[in-house]
């Protein structure tokens, strides 16, 4: 896995008709112990706004759309896609009911486990164990508790295990549909964990993983989350102002996946 700053890589992508897309947690914002306190650094916010004026730009997150919009804090990007928009509209109610049942089962099993917390995302769950004193034991307990859940698939992240409906759409599906709607010939996607792998694996994709991993489908990497600002700055510097597309506007997530 090479650094995305390898000579010529970003120059080629910036000169193309490219969609630029980002995960939020661990990518645009540092990972924090309490997900409600996640926030972009001020330079990241400023640079992301500049990138979104020069490129078609999307933020794709496992959080609910309204929460992503709040965390963007007024930065206008073309598309904001949260976990509900990853699902067909007629599926959201059914999946929400299923996840609610999962939550009740897990709360009974894990409610007394110190340092473990459940985050209900409506159509998925995130089980955080960053604060657990014995993280290996916490992971084993989480996996054991989730083993009997019907139609649940587990995706490990950074100090979190995500529970998603088996066979449901993912970030790769969402990104491919946005790219097709815009008619972009290529896409750059930046993410940081296993939930981003489906996007990294798309064709005509320049996948950039925050922190290198030998088993990732991403071809390129950033050393750490701090380098996201360097990437944004480089994208701005490579895109002539005259290429700004006047039709750029924020579009609701539901339109992105219509």
Give your account of this protein's structure.
It is globular and about 55 Å long. α7 (197-200) links the parallel β9 (186-191) and β10. It has helices spanning 9-14, 42-54, 65-72, 89-110, 135-146, 171-182, 197-200, 227-238, 253-256, and strands at residues 2-3, 18-22, 57-60, 79-81, 117-120, 125-128, 152-156, 160-165, 186-191, 205-210, 220-222. With 258 residues, it is α/β, with parallel strands linked by helices. A seven-stranded parallel sheet has the order 1-11-10-9-2-3-4, sandwiched between helices.
Provide the descriptors you would attach to this structure in a database record.
alpha/beta, globular, disordered C terminus, 258 residues, 11 strands, single chain, 19% strand, seven-stranded parallel beta sheet, 9 helices, four-stranded antiparallel beta sheet
Low-confidence stretches: 242-258
The N- and C-terminal alpha carbons lie at a distance of: 35 Å
- Number of helical regions: 9
Major β-sheet annotation? 7 strands, parallel
Oligomer classification: single chain
Kindly summarize this structure in a few lines.
The chain is α/β, with parallel strands linked by helices and 258 residues long.
């Amino acid at each position: 896995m090479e650094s995305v700053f390898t000579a010529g890589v970003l120059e080629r992508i910036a000169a193309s008709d490219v969609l630029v897309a980002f995960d939020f947690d661990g990518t645009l914002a540092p990972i924090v112990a309490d997900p409600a306190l996640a926030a972009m650094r001020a330079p990241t916010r400023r640079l992301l706004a500049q990138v979104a004026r020069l490129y078609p730009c999307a933020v794709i997150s496992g959080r609910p759309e309204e929460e992503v919009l709040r965390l963007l804090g007024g930065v206008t990007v073309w598309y904001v896609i949260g976990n509900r928009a990853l699902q067909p509209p007629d599926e959201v109610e059914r999946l929400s009911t299923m996840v609610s049942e999962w939550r009740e089962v897990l709360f009974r099993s894990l409610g007394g486990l110190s340092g473990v917390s459940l985050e209900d995302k409506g159509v998925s769950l995130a089980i955080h164990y960053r604060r657990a004193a014995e993280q290996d034991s916490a992971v084993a307990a989480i996996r054991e508790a989730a083993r009997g859940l019907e139609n649940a698939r587990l995706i490990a992240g950074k100090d979190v295990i995500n529970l998603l409906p088996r066979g449901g759409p993912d970030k790769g599906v969402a990104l491919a549909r946005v790219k097709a709607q815009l008619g972009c010939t290529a896409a750059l996607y930046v993410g940081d964990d296993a939930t981003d792998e489906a996007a990294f694996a798309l064709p005509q994709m320049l996948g950039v993983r925050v922190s290198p991993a030998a088993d990732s489908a991403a071809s390129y990497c950033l050393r750490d989350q701090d380098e996201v600002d360097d990437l944004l700055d480089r994208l701005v510097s490579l895109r002539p102002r005259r290429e700004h597309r006047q039709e750029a506007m924020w579009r609701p997530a539901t339109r992105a996946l219509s």
